[in-house]
From TrEMBL:
Transmembrane segments: none annotated. Keywords: TPR repeat. It comes from Cupriavidus metallidurans. TPR repeats lie at residues 176-209, 210-243. PANTHER family: CELL DIVISION CYCLE 16,23,27, CELL DIVISION CYCLE PROTEIN 27 HOMOLOG. This is Tetratricopeptide repeat protein. It holds the Pfam family TPR_19. InterPro entries: TPR-like_helical_dom_sf, TPR_rpt. The keyword Acyltransferase does not apply.
Length: 636
């Protein structure tokens, strides 16, 4: 999940104590009786804005009254009156006053900024930006520049927002809120280290600035510096124990530190403080998934989605849980929100054509393209024949584009389906009328759990290469078993889904009649750490997935964690045992030892968080039975 960040409060949002209010009202009343009218050349409008920001409303009101009495046609005085109307909740009168000014002076910067502020308060950030763009940062005060930053952030123009925030820091370099605004804008832009630098300047000026410590912790989390995030998040909670966003970030940090029970407690506190906040509900759901509390995790995401029906990230997380529970009808619909998820946001290509949503393809060309990772491509390529047949029936034409590293394997496997598979790095794409991401294919085909196309093999290895491997491996007369113990090292869940090689070696050591073969591409150094593990390493010969497919075809069994090899072996129809961590990916469903996606696959599931021992013990027992000619229960 995205760590929760919040903006610094405006002065007008801070609530002083009752005593302080009484003292201020008294002082304002006394001052107003002696207040002189604004002097010529004095920045009276700026003074009014300062008073209003500081809550000195009575003093500002008296001054504005006297100002207008002396110079009723002063445009600045009318803008000041509009600002007072805003503070009193009378936005209609404020708009009328500002429009009066702009009718006379269309380029009055403070009136333009006032119209922008009204738009921002109404939730219309785009109009606010349009109003601000008619003026310049040099003519605005700190609060107006802050409004401009907020409007730009809301419209997604974070580059311009950072520029305006830098103007704000130049204007008020000793104001912690200026540096906070710059840090927040950089933070939302993904420049976490730069954001931390700006936050540090704010912290040096005001270490207890509201929301600052929370956002520092969030930036550390997003930079992968979880340990460093704990102190500022803890301080944020000390300063304001009722801040749900700080508790959300604490839950996220604890989950990254492999403390799911504590993460669940922190998330429960966030939900107690903000029962309908989508991020709080999602945080608790994330923690409960690691604890195997699936029904509660799903219920929380359903509630979060009701509160944030347009949040792509929330809906995408709901989709994962729906499909994990076997609800493909709803899950595939919500899966379409994946492009708004933190993992995929900003990766959708600009293909200059509309997505195909079921329109007639008569006389049209559809461009089907691979997405996400290699495992996803191998899992979903099974839907290419179905899409091809649908296009053919409607009288259209299909182009399919896949990752270049899979091109040889997919071209061979789909030779009877489409005449040509296009590699993704081709210099130019063919013309097409519609396009479709590959993982959207099952939705377009109306696929449900019981209608999955699961005939295997649907991928075919090179026959000559597979035969050469078979001749090499048959000499031993033993059962040949391929092994993969880790997925992509950069995957955020890999530390949880990978099996420590020492534990794996301990489980597979001294098994008679079995020869193990490493297919762990980056595992040479790890194997060196377990010299007594008798395993042959062929990875130097595996230069492509096509090479790996040929080796797999010659093996008797593949044992792997959840990674691309699990999908490749399953798609080749090879008996495959997949070891799954407690929070397994959605396609493996819940509580099953088989897979409707891959009929020759058996699943070995963790029961307790990070405890591989029972899984490895079962794998060893089943291997002993298999080597002795006794099939393992439910094995393929």
């Amino acid at each position: 999940m995205i760590p929760a960040t919040i903006r610094a409060p405006r002065s007008s949002e801070m609530t002083p104590s009752l005593l302080a209010i009484t003292e201020r009202v008294t002082s304002q009343s006394m001052a107003s009786t002696a207040q002189e009218a604004p002097r010529p050349g004095h920045d009276a409008l700026g003074q009014v804005h300062t008073w209003l920001r500081e809550g000195a409303l009575l003093q500002a009101a008296h001054w504005i009254r006297d100002w207008l009495k002396r110079t009723p046609d002063s445009m600045d005085a009318i803008v000041a009156q509009a600002a007072l109307h805003v503070e009193l909740g009378d936005t209609a009168s404020a708009r009328t006053a500002l429009e009066q000014v702009l009718a006379t002076l269309p380029d009055h910067s403070r009136a333009l900024a006032g119209m922008a502020h009204l738009a921002l308060c109404a939730g219309d950030a785009k109009s606010a930006v349009d109003w601000f763009q008619q003026t310049g940062p040099e003519a605005l005060d700190e609060a107006e520049l802050s409004d401009w930053c907020e409007a730009l952030a809301a419209t997604g123009d974070l580059t311009r927002g950072a520029d305006i925030a830098r103007h704000l820091c130049e204007r008020a370099p000793k104001a912690a809120t200026s540096w906070f605004q710059l840090g927040l804008t950089l933070h939302h832009s993904g420049f976490h280290e730069q954001a931390l630098d700006a936050y540090a300047k704010a912290h040096a000026l005001d270490p207890d600035l509201d929301n600052l410590c929370n956002n520092i912790g969030a930036a550390y989390l997003q930079s992968g510096r979880t340990e460093e995030a704990m102190a500022p998040i803890g301080r944020a909670i000390e300063l304001k124990p009722s801040n749900p966003l700080a508790w959300i970030n604490l839950s996220d940090a604890l989950l990254k530190l492999r403390r799911p029970d504590d993460a669940a407690l922190a998330a429960r506190r966030a939900c107690a403080l903000a029962p309908t906040m989508p991020l709080a509900l999602q945080a608790q759901s994330n923690a409960l998934k690691e604890l195997g509390q699936w029904a509660d995790a799903l219920a929380l995401m359903e509630k979060a989605a009701m509160q944030a029906p347009v949040s792509g990230g929330i809906i995408w997380n709901l989709a994962m849980l729906q499909m994990l529970h076997g609800d493909y009808r709803n899950g595939l619909i919500n899966f379409e929100h994946r492009w708004a998820s933190p993992e995929l946001e900003g990766t959708f290509p600009d293909l200059k054509a509309p997505i195909w949503r079921g329109e007639s393809l008569a006389g049209k060309t559809l461009f089907l393209w691979g997405e996400q990772g290699f495992g996803d491509a191998m899992q979903f390529v099974r839907f290419v024949p179905g899409i091809a047949e649908l296009v053919r029936q409607q009288g259209g034409q299909l182009h399919y584009c896949c990752f270049s590293k899979l091109h040889t394997l997919f071209s061979r496997s789909l030779a009877d389906v489409i005449p040509e598979v296009i590699p993704h790095d081709t210099p130019s794409l063919p013309r097409f009328d519609y396009h479709l991401p590959l993982c959207s294919a099952p939705l377009r085909l109306g696929t449900e759990l019981d209608t999955l196309p699961a005939d295997v093999p649907y991928l075919r290895a090179d026959a000559a290469a597979a035969s050469a491997w078979a001749q090499r491996l048959s000499a031993s007369g033993k059962l040949n078993v391929g092994v993969v113990w880790s997925g992509s090292r950069g995957h955020q869940r890999n530390p949880l889904r990978a099996v420590p090689v020492a534990e794996l070696a301990g489980a597979l050591r001294d098994l008679p009649g079995i020869e193990f073969h490493s297919m762990q591409i980056d595992g040479v150094a790890e194997l060196a750490s377990v010299p007594d593990f008798d395993i042959r390493d062929h990875t130097a010969e595996l230069r492509s997935y096509d090479d790996t497919a040929a080796l797999i075809s010659s093996l008797d069994l593949v044992i792997t964690v959840c990674t691309s090899v699990a999908h490749l072996a399953g798609a080749l129809g090879k008996p495959t045992w997949v070891m799954l961590d407690v929070n397994a990916s959605w396609q493996w469903l819940l509580g099953r030892s088989d897979s409707p996606w891959y009929p020759t696959t058996r699943l070995y599931r963790q029961v307790t968080y990070r405890d591989w021992q029972p899984v490895l013990e079962q794998v060893r027992a089943d291997l002993l039975g298999l080597a002795g000619g006794i099939p393992a229960a439910d094995a393929n």
